Amino acid sequence: MLKNCMSDPSLIIPIEDIGIKDILSYEEIPVQILDRQVRKLRTKEVPSVKVLWRNQFVEEATWEAEKDMKKRYPHLFETGEILDQGTNSFLGTH
Predict the structure, then answer these.
(1) Which DSSP string do the residues of 70-91 spell out, in sequence order?
(2) C-beta of residue 23 within 8 angstroms of C-beta of residue 17
(3) Tens of pLDDT along 30-44?
């Protein structure tokens, strides 16, 4: 289907000329902790944090295990404050 759109063969770039690496990866970077809650299971309690990720809106924030987030991203917990969803300073920067 794409061939029908390309009328000029000189615009086609051979795949060998494109420097694509075999291993492509993309890592989301957490920006801020928005909220915290403790989920109660039958035998234990699991603390969770709501994480705002880079290049995402507040509505797309995800709940993650606090233990795992502290292990991978300790800088998010250094200030000790967890912001409320309504006071997110990153809303206007998307």
Answers:
(1) HHH-GGGGSS-----GGG-TTG
(2) no
(3) 999 999 999 999 999
Q: Are 67 and 74 in contact (CB under 8 A)?
A: no
Alpha-carbon gap, residue 66 to 72, rounded angstroms: 10
Closest C-alpha among 58, 46, 55, 64 to residue 27: 55
Helices (DSSP H) in 9-88: which residue ranges? 66-72
CATH match for 29-83 among 1.20.120.530, 1.10.630.10, 2.40.50.40, 3.40.1130.10: 2.40.50.40
The CB density around residue 4, as the number of other CB atoms within 10 Å, is 6
What is this structure's pTM?
0.57
pLDDT of 9-26, one tens digit each?
777 777 666 666 777 777
E strands present in 1-94: 30-40, 45-53, 62-65
